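We now fix the convention by which a protein and its fold are recorded. Here is one such record, which you should read through line by line:

>
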Amino acid sequence: MQSGGPRHDGVQPGSLRGDGPRRGDLRGDGPRRGDLRRESPRQRDARQAGVAYQVLKVLNNNAVLARDGTGRAVVLQGRGLGFHARRRTCIPADDPAIEAAYVAGAPGIPVPPWLPGIVADLVERAGATLGEAIDPHIVPALLDHLAFALHRVRQGLPLENPFLAEIEVLFPEELRLARQLLAEVAAAGGRVLPPDEAGFVALHLRAARAGVPVKEPARHTALVHDLVEWVRRRLGVALRPGGLDHARLVAHLRYLLDAVARGGRTPNPLLPRIQEEFPDAMALARQLGDEIARRLGKPVMEDDLGYVALHLAKLMMDAGGPADASPAGAPEEPLRGSPTSP
């Protein structure tokens, strides 16, 4: 994804929100879902001459999905740009309201012409479903990602997502939307993307929902995956993806990561009793905490680890050993060195 177009002093790159729409409303008076605006022959000539952008869809008051002179999809950013674009079908390339342009499409991997409308609809539907505005930056980023995924499928290259089981627990709403998107891509383009691809799309949606780079939820998901795998090997338990024990452990780890991200200390009135009755489970929880602190660069509070220790104690008992003793024959295994650790 490239950034081009005019820039002005004081513009914050990456900020498409500003005075955006109300929560859940990405449409305003824009076109109906799936209805990309048509351009007249005169407007097409102006766009191809590089003097105008064709408006495809208004994303919010400050962002517009458009097409440039070469036919590439581009998200135009500017305060009030989307509000004014609702009443016109093209925007002059030298319009002073344009603060930044984010172009989709990598060299040699063009974006199919039918894909921008599907992705724009996803952003609209996600805002309505999740009840909050979605950062429009997801449009060019997701167009790039999907174009590359389609390219890999055409080349017969595999698309595997080792974190899909964790994504199903961590981001279920985003994953449902992502699976709908894959169905629409298959219907429009005749290419069926593998189910694992929905997990990657869900990470993009989560990032856009939180207004953070996609690498942040991806990093947290990889960390949860590594912690789960270490617990599985250390305790000798199955933790089958989709099973209750797996889902509960992933959920506990998510709450722990959320607490670490918030900072501060959440009092745990049960902590002294947990430390006394389940010392080995507490020791395992501290090892998890050490790895989280190493990977995220933030301290992990003992109170928060106590809640994780309770779940680890249950897993230890289910594995056939007492909760206050390490499972028989389980070797001491350092948490670092997981294949997916950064």
Remarks:
- The CA atoms of residues 24 and 314 lie 41 Å apart.
- The radius of gyration is 24 Å.
- DSSP finds twelve helices and six strands in the chain.
- The mean pLDDT is 80.
